[in-house]
Amino acid sequence: MVGVAAVPAVIQFCIMLCLPESPRWLFMKDNKAKAIAILSKIYDVARLQDEIDHLSITEEEECQKRNDVKISDVFKSKEIRLAFLVGAGLQAFQQFTGINTVMYYSPTIVQMAGFSSNQLALLLSLVIAAMNAAGTVLGIYLIDHFGRKKLAISSLAGVIASLFILAGAFFGKSSGSSNELYGWIAVLGLALYIACFSPGMGPVPWTVNSEIYPEQYRGICGGMSATVNWISNLIVAQTFLSIAEAVGTGSTFLMLAGIAVLAVVFVIMYVPETMGLAFVEVEQIWKERAWGSSYNTESLLEQGNDK
């Protein structure tokens, strides 16, 4: 079982051998010919020259800035601090809405719902895992057609509904009823949760984190927000069963639903829509949020939120 886990790692290793280098990194290393060759595979002829000109203009400035960037600088700059709080907040909410609780403990949750058979519990958990994979593939299509913000909000709305279904099923089960219907309602809630979460809150935090930071901060802020994600994952994974035992499984799912409601408020208030925006336009959004819309006569913030 453990050895099978090496298979996807080997596949990923082989695929990454074909992964091209970042054109920006190649420009920094004075390998402009290779950078242009990669850019030509990404952009059409009309935009290619604009991208080359932009990289040429910003190359020296970005190299200098990257050399000076430290972790403390993330919190010293108001606009970078705002961007990081949004990126880290999305990563934290991704975990605190319970996704890895569902993935790690789905066989246990199925058994809690009244299915005592280990084989049936594992089979149903495999179905849930397959839905997660299918939903993630669907998210690849949706994220560039509906936008990051709308997709996250609609995903969270489905997550909230499914968590209420789960909570209701476990409250009904704990009331002493022997009706197997509650068990199937719980399984339906799990399936709906995955169907709603995987296309939206699964990919959106990672996508947004790759788009909201200036180039010189992208590596360090992306790494810090990923750390927030895994720390949140650790907290949720280590506390779920203890909380469920202390207050009941139904109440635990209600708590997760409450966190999902907070996540909706967070996305609406603080997350900008980055679909279709260039990195310089996203930087302008944070400058306007940090220093006011008078920073620039054209409000790109409103332009981004209207999309």
Q: What are the defining features of this structure?
A:
78% helix; 0% strand; 15 helices; 307 residues; mainly alpha
Characterise the protein shown here:
With 307 residues, this protein is mainly alpha-helical. 78% of the residues lie in helices and 0% in strands. Helix 12 (215-247) packs antiparallel against helix 13. The chain starts with 5 loop residues before the first helix and ends with a helix.
In percent, how helical is the residue content? Answer: over 70%
Major beta-sheet overview: none
Task: Please report the distance between the alpha carbons of the first and last residues.
Answer: 46 Å
List the helices and strands in order: HHHHHHHHHHHHHHH
Q: Give the overall form.
A: elongated
Number of strands: 0
Low-pLDDT residue intervals, each spanning 5 or more residues: 297-302
**Rg on CA atoms, Å:** 22 Å
Mean pLDDT score, rounded? Answer: 84
Q: What is the strand content?
A: under 5%
**Number of helical elements:** 15
What structural category arises from helix and sheet content? Answer: mainly alpha
